[in-house]
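subagent[fold] <- orchestrator: predict structure for attached chain, return tokens only, no commentary.
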Amino acid sequence: MEVRIGVQNSTREVVIESAGTADQIAKAVQAALSSGENLILTDEKGRQVIVPANALAYVDIAAPEARRVGFGG
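subagent[fold] -> orchestrator:
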């Protein structure tokens, strides 16, 4: 699951591949925003990304893409 995080006052976004579901990620974002704590997400390789909740501009949770087989045309 690809997750893009926009950070205030930054032109670049943070992009991670998470093993979590869209619901798990959305709940983590909601919990961080309501408590004011840091948003902590773990990517597929076990690395953690920590973003202060007050610096979040947006979080885009992309639907998993089905892998295509064959030659495009």
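orchestrator: received. Logging for downstream: The beta strands are 2-7, 13-17, 39-42, 48-51, 56-61. The longest helix spans residues 22-35.
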